Structure prediction request, 410 residues.
Amino acid sequence: MSVFGKLSRRSLWAMVAFIVIAGAVLIWGRGFVGLRDGQASRPEPVASASEDRPGSSNADDASVDLSEKQAAALKIGPVATHEFAVLKTAVGTIDFNENLLVQVFSQYPGKILKAFYNVGDDVKQGDILFTIDSPDLLQAESNLLAAAGVLELQKRTLVRVTTLLKAGGMAQKDVDQTTSDQQTAEGNFKAAKDAVRIFGKADADIEQVLVDRKVDSTLVVPSPISGRIVTRNAAPGFLTQPGTAPAPFSVADLSTMWMIANVVESDAPAYKLGQAVEVTVPAYPDRIFKGHVTNLGSMIDPNSHRQYVRSEIEDPEHLLRSGMYASFVIHVGDPASSLAVPADGVVREGDGTMSVWVTGDSRHFVKRTVSVGLRQDGWVQILEGLQPGETVVTDGAVFLSNKLLLGDAG
Prediction:
């Protein structure tokens, strides 16, 4: 092949390459101009399937549209006012009414002979709880017998000297002295009887001692009140001393009990003496025990920052037990009238906010965030977020919140 032929072929390939490069440059240049002028093509958005779904919600306006059948399952009603009682609540424990709790001691030392009742037994005032062998009673009855003997002797002496005086065989001064001795003996006898009576002996018992000329050192200890035995430490053979713990028996009048609570410092100014109290205990969840505040602590505990509050609770059926866990409600003010919505119309959202659903046509529902207050008797106090007369969902609000959430998720 000639040199000229070789050059022609090379020129042909070079021309082809030049044409390809020029075309590429031309295409790139048009694309650059399009991007610069904002004319670059973009893909068309794909329509979301949820846009055509019935009952879908829009998160921007937080609303839900329902079909007629769905809306019929809800209950709606106007926002109205409701009376809310102004209450304070606290927890505490049940205890005996210590004003009606008696520790029963013997007035004198001695050895216990018999104990007649056990813990839990009910007793009446005057029932004998236990008996003791009392050395003091023995001494008192011995003195009584001695005084009775001296009195009897002085009476016979007075009769004798009086007879001698009439016969002229006795001086008047001797009769006067004997009369004085007889009166002294009579006074000693009465004092001895009173001393025995102090031990609880009746006049019939004293007369029996005098007739039999025999002492009985058994001292009976009765219950000073009617109530229930709550502790027993008495047993035959045990020695007992007046006022020395433990007491042989403790008797409590259970017609009233105490509830002792410690309330938070911020609530302390709301409590007053005499305020009505309603108490519930886990053992009787459907029973309300009524009472009133009887004592307020004079100081705030520096460690817990709580105040002592004691209430006296009526318990005529003796159902409460000391140590029971209890809670009380105290009315601390006049009822307050406020906007309210039934509890089933208020929803706690996932972020902690409270919301209700407002509607104007019973088909389109708008979520409204509200501020709530008290909850009483199935009603929720609305502090902010609603106006009187607005129509809201009163039952089924959770369904709408769930539907809104599912719509956003879709």
Observations:
- Confidence is low (pLDDT under 50) at residues 1-7, 28-60.
- Residues 251-334 form a domain with the Elongation Factor Tu (Ef-tu); domain 3 fold (CATH 2.40.30.170).
